[in-house]
């Protein structure tokens, strides 16, 4: 099983729709979790951290389910500008900071 | 991200040539990373460094070398031993305590 798994998509959704992505991780000792956004031919940019209690930033909501070992990202009222690849990132504990990136889920918002 | 500078933005390598990609940061973070991304693929870790004068191989270190003589700088050399160097190279930095990584805007390397 991969350390971090994401559905590659693409998810094609109309403007205004709500869309959700999940990301599963294999190491139950994982400590911190993030969602990044990557536009075509650009670097990944931090979208939001994911906390146990869940967190919301405008139209974006991130949640963590430790029991089932997955994190989720919900985007409400999708905009054309949300079209991008969304990367799930998991930090493992240890003497060094081991960071594992998912391969990303591609979102295309259609007019 | 502000505070992380990668150069050049585009680089062309001739057959048998070594090229060096620069990554400089002014965020005072200890940890620095180099990733490679091929079209339509995820990030793959080349090398990382947790402290000055120390670095570790990642998953695809063959054909690459690094140095970490200063906290601010973590240059990556793509050697002639790397037979398929065409890719998007990303440098990242990370603070302590499980903080997220932040990326420079990358270098695109192609073969002439």
Overall description:
The complex is a heterodimer of chains A (111) and B (112). Chain A is globular. In chain A, the strands form two sheets. In chain A, strands 2, 4, 5, 9, 10 and 11 form a six-stranded mixed beta sheet that branches. A five-stranded antiparallel beta sheet of chain A has the order 1-3-8-7-6, with no helix packed on it. Chain A is 0% helix and 56% strand. In chain A, a hairpin with a 5-residue loop joins strand 9 and strand 10. Chain A contains no helices and eleven strands. With 111 residues, chain A is mostly beta strands. Chain B has 112 residues and is mostly beta strands. Chain B is globular. At the A-B interface, strand 4, strand 5 and strand 9 of A face strand 5, strand 9 and strand 10 of B.
Question: The biggest beta sheet of chain A, please?
Answer: 6 strands, mixed
Largest interface: A-B, 21 and 22 residues
SSE-based structural type of chain A: mainly beta
- Mean of residue pLDDT values of chain A: 92
Strand content of chain B: over 45%
CA-CA gap between termini of chain A: 37 Å
Large-scale geometry of chain B: globular
Q: What gyration radius of chain A follows from the Cα positions, in whole Å?
A: 14 Å
Helix content of chain A: under 10%
Alpha-carbon Rg of chain B, integer:
13 Å
Q: Unreliable runs of chain A, pLDDT <50, ≥5 residues?
A: none
Low-confidence stretches of chain B: none
Largest sheet of chain B: 7 strands, mixed
- Beginning-to-end CA distance, first to last residue of chain B: 29 Å
The count of DSSP E runs of length 2 or more, i.e. the number of strands of chain B, is: 11
**Fraction of residues of chain B in helices?**
under 10%
Enumerate how many helices of chain A there are, as a single number.
0
The average pLDDT score of chain B comes to: 93
Order of helices and strands of chain A: EEEEEEEEEEE
């Amino acid at each position: 099983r991969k350390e971090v798994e994401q559905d590659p998509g693409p998810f094609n959704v109309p403007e205004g729709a709500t869309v959700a992505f999940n990301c599963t991780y294999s190491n139950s000792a994982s400590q911190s979790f993030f969602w990044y956004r990557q536009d075509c031919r650009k670097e990944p940019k931090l979208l939001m951290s994911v906390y146990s209690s869940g967190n919301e930033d405008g139209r974006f909501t991130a949640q963590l389910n430790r029991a089932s070992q997955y994190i989720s990202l919900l985007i409400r009222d999708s905009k054309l500008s949300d079209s991008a690849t969304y990367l799930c990132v998991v930090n493992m504990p240890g003497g060094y900071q081991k960071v594992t990136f998912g391969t990303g889920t591609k979102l295309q918002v259609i007019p | 991200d502000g505070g992380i500078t990668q150069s050049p933005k585009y680089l062309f390598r001739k057959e048998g040539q070594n090229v060096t990609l620069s990554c400089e940061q002014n965020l005072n973070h200890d940890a620095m990373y180099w990733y490679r991304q091929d079209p339509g693929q995820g990030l793959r870790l080349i090398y990382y460094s947790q402290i000055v004068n120390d670095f570790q191989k990642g998953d695809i270190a063959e054909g690459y070398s690094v140095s970490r003589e200063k906290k601010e700088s973590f240059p990556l050399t793509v050697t002639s031993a790397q037979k398929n160097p065409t890719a998007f190279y990303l440098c990242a930095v990370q603070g302590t305590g499980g903080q997220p990584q932040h990326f420079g805007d990358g270098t695109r390397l192609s073969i002439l």
